[in-house]
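Hi U.,

Before I forget, here's the chain from the pilot set. I'm dumping it here mostly so it's searchable later in email.
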Amino acid sequence: MEKFIKIHPNDNVVVAIHDDGIKKGESVMGVTAAEDIPRGHKMAVVEIPENENVIKYGYPIGHATTTIKPGEWVHSHNVKTNLSSTLEYTYDPKLNPIPATRKETFMGYVRKNGDVGIRNEIWVVNTVGCVNGVSNAIVEKARKKYGDKVDGIYNFVHPYGCSQLGEDHENTQKLLAGMVRHPNAAGVLVLSLGCENNNMNEFKKVLGEWDDDRVKFFICQEHGDEVEEAVDVIGELVEYAQQFKQEEVPASKLVIGLKCGGSDGLSGITANPLVGRISDIMVANGGKTVLSEVPEMFGAETILMDRCENRELFDKTVSLVNNFKEYFISHGEPVGENPSPGNKKGGITTLEDKSLGCTQKGGTSDVKGVLLYGEKATADGLSLLQGPGNDIVAISGMMASGCHLILFTTGRGTPVGSPVPTVKIATNDDLATRKPNWIDWNAGRLIIDKEMDSYAEEFFKYILDVASDRVKTKNEINGYREIAIFKNGVTL
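Structure:
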């Protein structure tokens, strides 16, 4: 196993990839390491003068704040981001259309409206946080009574639905409406208190059309024993759900979310490129993938902009990026306020460093869609989704856009899960070995004993097994299912 990798011929740094890192005095590309370089961290292989760019992945990840000598550790003590504010961009298309030539299938549940689910579950969706405790009690009793008749009965607590204004209130409604429509739920109980801003009549306006057999509405203030009566309604939903049986459907019906969290210096070398291959394989199957985390596009956004299929999508992507930068600035926060402490410990130095690794999850295909928060993914191929980098907020947004499952890469490790299967992919072998209760797939083997093309095919077969419910993800096994709603403004 090599101890380092030079990712791009134009890079002026290498990355330590061995568990022991690069030791002081070791020779790397004819350069002697001046100090210990931990795994995932960078070492200069040429002199980088003060204010000159540090190049990784073939792109600048920031500039040197002092002259960096060959063999020296390159990190936040001597590198600073180049990011500042909004920018003007030029559309310079570099397209890579991937034809839909593959015809893989999986076993799914075809709903009455033609949507396909990969689980046959019952979901309780709360219109307001006031009924969180009630929904917990309802689900506990319903599981005891009906739990063996469907794939699961779940509720998702949150603090919102009342005392919100404007866009925040709309975001809550859009996220919850996306949950109600999600095809992994064979039946949905919409649970309301009755007096909230997001009351049932208002929520129905956002929800639009629904199937009365699949979606039931329950207002707690209008019932004597809300728990027992709601459990009876869930019984009706369970009976409805039992009519659905798995059948073979094309992989083109799948929508897969692409996410990273707790990243490290190997994320852009192992797990994220692996997920990028899966995105391209999905495109070749005529399927859909969704990339979010807009702040983690900063510094790499032009790569995605140049892959936009047309000028309209380019303009939408520019707005997506600049609007998020303005969001940061409006709160008095620097645009480059990232990476997190854990990211830095793992070897990520600047937001550009993080972004250039993060965007690799989108593969190489053209961008076919740009979505606002809560919008459903409809374009075949890769779509970009408005949303922050925060793990739970981002995966909740992808779920609301119709993602059947999430591919979630991590170098530090995280137990978080969304309402849909969340496949955790370790960037390094050490994490996969230490946390098998969290990790579903070990991308660290790409720098030990696996080759990308064959390993991507192996991983895609695993994903089809997850979609077919032949394999449960660790978040499903552990019962880790959370939602978080994007919030910006005032709480009354």
